[in-house]
Amino acid sequence: MNSFLSRINKIYASSKARMMCRWPEIKSLYVQEPDIFENIFKRGSSIRYKLRHDVRMNALWIAYNITDGYLKNPRCYYCGILFEKSDYFNGTVHLDHFDPISKTGKHLAGNVVPACRDCNLLKSNLLDIELLQISKNPETFFTNKYLSSSDSKKEKLMDFSALFFQRIGGIDGYREKYNISINEIRSHQDKMKDNYRAKWYRN
Ligand SMILES: [Zn+2]
C-alpha cells in the first residue's frame, strides 16, 4: 500500500460516519485513477474546511464521488461540458457546493459537484430559491439584485437557471412546463444543456 492509500485507509477505518461503500471499492477506484483521487482529496480537505466536522472523511467521500464521476461521465454538473483529464489539474474543474457553504450548505459528498469554472463563477452563491425566482420572475429578481450587471449577464443567468428547473420545480412541474413524458426527461435535459453551451460557449 502506498503512503496515500495507507493514509486514507486509516481515515476510513477510524471514521464513525455511516459507510457509503466498502474499503475494497474505494481502493479499486483509487487504483484506477490515483492522480484525480488524490488531487480531489487534497482540495476537499483544504484549510478552508478545517473547522468543519470530520473534514478528512468528507474529503474522502468527495474524492470517491468525483473520481467515480470522472470514470463514468466526466462532465460539468450544470452545463454538461465534457472534461479532459487535464482539466482536473488546470483550474477548469471546480468543486462546487450545490447549496453554498457561505449560506446553509455543508461540505458533504452529496452537496459537492464537479462544475466548470464558468458555471461555478456564474452560480456564485445563488440558492435554489433564487434560481427559481430568476427562472420564473426575472424582472422582479433583477430589480433587487444584479443591478449593475450587463443585460448579457442577466440573460445568461436566466438561461442558466432554466437548467435547474427539474431540481427545484420537481419532476411533475418540469414535465408540465415542457409537456413531455417521464421517459423524455433525460434527453430533454441533455438537449437544454447542449443549447446552453452552444449559445454561451463560443468554442
Ligand atoms: Zn459548466
UniProtKB/TrEMBL annotation:
Gene Ontology molecular function, alphabetical: endonuclease activity; nucleic acid binding; zinc ion binding
Record keyword Hydrolase present: yes
Domain of life (superkingdom): Bacteria
Keyword tags: Endonuclease, Hydrolase, Nuclease
Domain HNH nuclease: 65-121
Keyword Hydrolase: yes
InterPro entries from the UniProt entry: HNH, HNH_nuc
Protein name per UniProt: HNH endonuclease
Origin species: Leptospira semungkisensis
